[in-house]
Design goal:
The chain is mainly alpha-helical. It is 77% helix and 7% strand. The chain has five helices and two strands. The chain has helices at 5-29, 36-43, 45-58, 70-86, 89-107; strands at residues 59-62, 65-68. It has a two-stranded antiparallel sheet with strand order 1-2. Helix 4 packs antiparallel against helix 5. It is extended and about 50 Å long. The protein starts with a helix and ends with a helix.
Length: 108
């Protein structure tokens, strides 16, 4: 593969633009004691991101409006129950992936 200097500079620029907003906050905040309300607010960020990712998968935008993908819902419910029961991220991910694979194999 032949990479010219323009392509290499674009790739490096994209890498820098991606790394700066992800790494810079950690560098700035690492030696600062954040107030308790800020820490509490930050504790909600992971669940908000996870919720956005999950909801995006089971709501389908069509010409008639929004539709729910029931195959995804049928995987989310038992996976959530396993997550609550086991409190294990690994087991939850494995169960969710296996359930989705089984449903897609038999339905599609």
């Amino acid at each position: 593969m032949n990479v010219n200097s323009t392509t290499l500079l674009i790739i490096l620029g994209c890498a820098i633009v991606t790394i700066i907003p992800r790494v810079l906050p950690f560098i700035i905040v690492r030696n600062v004691a954040l107030p308790q309300p800020v820490l509490k607010w930050l504790s909600y960020v992971p669940i908000c991101i996870l919720t956005a990712l999950v909801v995006e998968n089971f709501i389908i935008h069509t010409e008639q409006g929004l539709k729910i993908d029931w195959t995804v819902i049928s995987v989310i419910v038992p996976t959530a129950l396993i997550a609550i029961w086991a409190k294990s991220l690994s087991l939850t991910v494995i169960v969710g992936v296996l359930l989705m694979a089984v449903i897609r194999y038999f339905i599609f």
